[in-house]
Every structure is written in structure tokens, then in C-alpha cells.
Design a protein that fits this description.
The chain is α/β, with parallel strands linked by helices and 254 residues long. The protein contains eight helices and seven strands. It has a single domain, classed as SGNH hydrolase (Rossmann fold). Helix 6 links the parallel strand 6 and strand 7.
Length: 254
Amino acid sequence: MDSPLPILKVKYIKVDFYGYNLNAILFGTTKPCSAGCLYSENSHAALPAPGEEMPDIRYLALGDSYTVGESVPENERWPNQLAGLLQADDVSTEVTIIARTGWTTDELWKGIQATEINPPYHLVSLLIGVNNQYRGLDIDEYREEFIFLLNKAIEYAGGDAKRVIVLSIPDWGVTPFAMSRDSRKIATEINLFNSVNREETEKAGVRYVDVTPSSREAVTDGALIAADGLHPSGKMYAEWAKLAHPEVLKILRP
């Protein structure tokens, strides 16, 4: 088991990374908000009123190998690329990632419990479930655990569902790793898991970003797959960041 990576300071973001690279197969009481802010538990989580200058925002990204960016450089992870897009909008972003290759829903919760975090955050993202599908775990159990994690994500966003985004599960069945497997079966199962997370996301009033169609473009564009033949490349993560970017701007600049 590798040791946790240290905090990495980049030009436009600070990344607090709490995951490990395991080389797995897959991967309170809220006080009233002060004048001008949209939500508050701690003053550093407040966004400005319209017309005021945007402060640095704090972003918590929760997930598995797709969030930690297995097999790509740190700056090519999709949360980091999203931060880069926000920087172009004059929004400086401090990114905290809690993710590990191979994690299922229940393992993500264990990882969160083992990590010191400091909510509330201006933005929280959640992308989880591919390893539940890969291991053949029960979809009803996935629904229950996904709902729990979604509620925790909302809690970490100061109780504001509008500050959370959920990304769909990409389709790994189009990768070279899956060449000897039944890609149609994988796609069907991925669609089923995504129908669950999308339904529960919409019920909770959370924004949903569908990255699955873009992941399936890898069937004709090998540049979308990393050198390991399984995980997305920086090019694909850039597409995910572009898809998430307008939704995040709606959160930060309503």
C-alpha cells in the first residue's frame, strides 16, 4: 500500500489529497447566515452577494479512481481541470479530494470517516458506483448507500443541495481492458446504476452531470483512454470538466 500523497500546491489551486493508489483493478447546528451570504456555518464558506467580488472557493470532490485520476498526472484529474476552468473565470479554487482507486459506496464512506475535513464547502461533487457494478453488488444496496452519501455531500455543502453536483458513472465497457468481456452487458448495468443515482439526485434537488455518453466516445477515440487501457485520459477528464463547468458557474454565480 502506498503512503498518502502530500498536499500539492499548484499555481491556481491547492489540492488536499487523501486517496491512495492501490493499483486496484478499477478503480450540527447551522447558525443564521450573515448579511449578503447564501449560506453559512463558518464565514469562510459564504459566497458574496450579487456584484461583490468572488472569494476563493473551497471544493470537496468525493469518489473513486475517476475522481483521483488513476493513471493521469495530478493536474489532469477532472476536479483539477475544473478548477483551471474556474480560474479562467477569476475564481480561485482550493480543491480537496477524498477518493481511492477501487472504492465502492461503503468504502468511500469509510474513507470519509478516516479523513479530517472542514465543512462547509462552497462546492461538493460526488461520483461513485462503478466498483459496485464491477463487483456485482446489489443495486438496491447501492441505492441506499448512494442516498446516504448524497445526503452527506449536501451536509458538507452547508446543507444546501444546490451546492452539490453528481456525475454519472462512465462506461468502462468500451475500454481495451474490457475487450474480452460483454460490453453490452456492462453498458446495460452501467445504465441501470445511473438510473438509480440520477433518480435520487433529482429527488434531492441536486445538479446532475451526465458524463457517460462522452465516456462511450472512447470506442472510436483511443486518446480518451489512459495508458493503462482502462481509466480515462486527461483528454476525457477535460471533457468532464467542461460538462461540469456551466453547472458549477450556476452555483457560484446564480
